[in-house]
Write a structure and sequence with these properties.
Elements: E1 13-15, E2 21-23, H1 27-62, H2 68-97, H3 101-106, E3 109-112, H4 121-142, H5 147-163, H6 174-179, E4 181-184
Antiparallel strand pairs: 1-2, 3-4
């Protein structure tokens, strides 16, 4: 079928700007590594979301629609801290070794597109900050209208930055494109 849509990497490897060929990682391996990395932050975010739901329900039950908004800032602060700590960890781990815990467990390395070496601090920060920034935009723009919907939009925007790899021919997500990195199974040049 010529008209069939294919998602993710459509070739087994990519040629870096240095001329070196490196294998691309399948999207299911990247998703598994991401899931491993998000377990600690995910637990915090689920608890914060549950707390928001309880506080919002309390406002409906008591009929006081403005009082709980001060209390809703507590889970919002928790979400901000969780996103910040996740981005800080990913920046540190990726710039230090080219791998987070999840990537190490799945045999994935993050490398620079130009030469296959591990990314520096700036590229690692961009890689980690884009999903967090997208999530925070969703939270802050919709928060006053509906904290619960804002949380769902924030989660969707966070996931969308990673899901963007599905429609990229090289399987590179937006954060990879912006930081000029890619996920491979090995470093092209020893780091």
């Amino acid at each position: 079928m010529a008209g069939r849509i294919r998602f993710g990497p459509q070739q087994p490897e990519i040629t870096l700007r240095s001329g070196e060929n490196v294998p691309l990682v399948r999207l299911k391996e990247r998703a598994a590594a991401r899931a491993i990395d998000l377990v600690p932050a995910g637990l915090v975010l689920v608890l914060a979301t549950a707390l928001m739901g309880c506080l919002a329900y309390a406002s409906l039950a008591t009929g006081d629609e403005y009082e709980p908004y001060g209390w809703l800032l507590v889970p919002l602060a928790i979400v901000f801290v969780a996103l910040f700590l996740t981005a800080a960890y990913e920046t540190w781990a990726t710039s230090a070794t080219g791998q987070t815990r999840g990537k190490r467990m799945k045999g994935i390395h993050v490398v620079r597109l130009r030469d296959g070496r591990k990314p520096g601090v700036a590229a690692s920060f961009v890689r980690a900050a884009l999903p967090a920034a997208a999530s925070l935009c969703g939270l802050t723009l919709i928060w006053r209208a509906s904290p619960l919907i804002a949380t769902l939009v924030a989660a969707a925007l966070y996931c969308l930055t990673y899901l963007s790899a599905f429609w990229n021919r090289q399987g590179r997500a937006w954060h990879d494109s912006l930081s000029q990195t890619l996920a491979t199974t090995r470093f092209a040049i020893d780091h």
